[in-house]
Each structure stands twice: as C-alpha cells, then as structure tokens.
Amino acid sequence: MTNFAYIMKLKLKYIFLFVIGFTIQANAQIVKDIKNNIQKGNFNPGYNNNSSSWNEISCDSTYSSLEEVPESIYVWHLDPKFGGLVSAEIDTLQHLFQNQALTSGIYGTYNFTGNLGAPRISRIFSNNKLQAFANQFIFKNHYDFFVKPISEHLFTNTRSPFTNITYHECGDKEHGEDRITAKFATNAGKKLGLGFVVDYLYGRGYYQSQNTAHFKGAVYASYISDNYTSHLVYQLHHLKNSENGGIEDDLYITEPESFSTTYETWDMPTNLKKTWNKLNINELSFSQRIKLGNIFGSH
C-alpha cells in the first residue's frame, strides 16, 4: 500500500510539472503573437474563443502605430553653499544592492547594536569627526543612513513618469526586518518637475525591547528656465526605537552552560524595559535664482 501511494504521488508530480511547462510555453507563444500583431498594426484586443489565434482585423487609429515611450531622466542636487545645480546619477546597479539597507553600511564600516534601524557610529574616526560638525542638530547624526540632509536630496527632470520601488526583507514574523522605499517623479512640461519619496523601516529586534520603526516622507518640486530657477522640498521623519540597555549578564552569551535553562537571545533579561527613543524631524527648504544678464543683456 505504501509503494502504491508513493507511485501515485510520483505520477501526479510529473503530471503537474508537465501541465505547468505546457502552460508557460503556450503563454509565451501568445505574448509573442501579440507583439507581432501590434507591430503589424492589426491587433484586436479581443480573443476569439472559437479559434486558436488572435483576431486579425483592421484596427482604428488607436492601434495604427506603436509609439515608443520616451525614457530619459536627469537628476541633480543643490550645492549647500551657493545653491547651484550639481549633476548626479541614480544608482540602479544590482551590485551590492543587498547591502544598501544594512545599518552597518554597504561595506560594513559602522558599529551598531545589531538591529536594523538602530543608531550607528563609524569605525573610521575621521568620519565621526566630520559628522560631528556636519549637522547642527546632533541627535540625527547617528541616523545618517535614514535621515539625509537637504543638500543630498535628488531633484528630477524626466520625459516620462518614473517609479522606483525597492524592498529588503529578512528573518521571520517575530524577529525579522523589513524596509521598503518608493520613489516617484514626473514632469508638468519641460520646466516643472515634481515627485515624492516614501521610506519605511521596521526591525523587530533579536533581543527584548530592541525594535525600531522609522518613517520618512518627502515631496519636492523644481522649476528651471533660462532666467529663473527654483527648488522646493519638504521632508518629515518619524523615528522610534526601543532601548534595552543591554542584557543583564554577559554570561548568557559567554558562558551559557552556567545556567540551568537554555536562553535564546529574545529570552535574555535586559536592563531596561518600556524605554523608547523618539525623534521627529521636519525640514522645509526653498531656494531660487534669477539671472538678470539674459534679461537686460544687449541684443
């Protein structure tokens, strides 16, 4: 009876794989036919159930030509001293993408308490010295992986709407980490660019009272013409992380055999409980430049 059940299970497995493979191949052929018909200009957005092929009839002007969507985006940020435009590039490479959300940094040059979104400090002393004098609001210095200054905000000018969504996830529902970032940019004409950025980070923590939850929202606009340039950006941040003050005894990690009970990291007693650190940051920036030379210049 056991062999019979095993044979039937094996047969069903092969039948399932065959059906899946056949379906994928059929769908690929349909998609290929659709593309060919669109390029020929005789695609009808309806399928004839009595035939194995797509209807090929004369279509109206909507499908008479296949127009290509223009793909072009230009990004820049503002010089913090004089407000000039500094050209930049959008990072869309897959190389080291998995490290972008790490609090330890892309190359692991930061120390932190182990949870995604926790405050960090650079292992390179010169970086810490520069960071200490970079911002007047010193409390956000150790959240530089999430809170970016206005001078690093990227403005956009695009020929077609642009959307970029990234998602990082690891762990399980009890001790996992998640971060999702969404960026959108569009243009209202050639001179006016608009967009927004949404960033959400949530780390449940691997120890008691260690979870983090950060949110960022930003909207921006730019207007660039021959004689007038203006930039507007508004950023809000809400950062929240729990503080545990460390575990009560290092022996839970260094000598776990000295305890009669085996402790997981989330079972180890900590020095602090129900202690939170919250940080709210709102920033509004508006800059404009007027070129009088072109207005009063001789012709």
Structural overview:
The protein is built from 4 helices and 11 strands, in the order αββββαββββββαβα. The protein has a 6-stranded antiparallel β-sheet with strand order 6-7-8-9-10-11, with no helix packed on it. A 3-stranded antiparallel β-sheet has the order 2-1-5, with no helix packed on it. The protein has helices at residues 2-40, 125-134, 251-254, 293-296, and strands at residues 73-78, 85-88, 110-112, 120-122, 155-158, 162-170, 177-188, 192-203, 212-224, 228-242, 276-290. The chain has 2 domains: 2-63; 73-296, no CATH class. By secondary structure, the protein is of the alpha+beta class.
Give a short summary of the structure:
With 299 residues, the chain is α+β, with helices and mostly antiparallel strands.
pLDDT average, as an integer? 78
Ends distance: 99 Å
Amount of helix = 10-25%
Structure annotation, total helices: 4
Structural class, judged by helices and strands? Answer: alpha+beta
Strand and helix order = HEEEEHEEEEEEHEH
Shape: elongated
Largest sheet geometry: 6 strands, antiparallel
Sheet with most strands: strand arrangement: 6-7-8-9-10-11
Low-confidence stretches: 22-65
Q: Which value, in Å, is the CA radius of gyration?
A: 28 Å
User: What is the domain tally?
Assistant: 2
Strand content: 25-35%
Say how many strands there are. Answer: 11
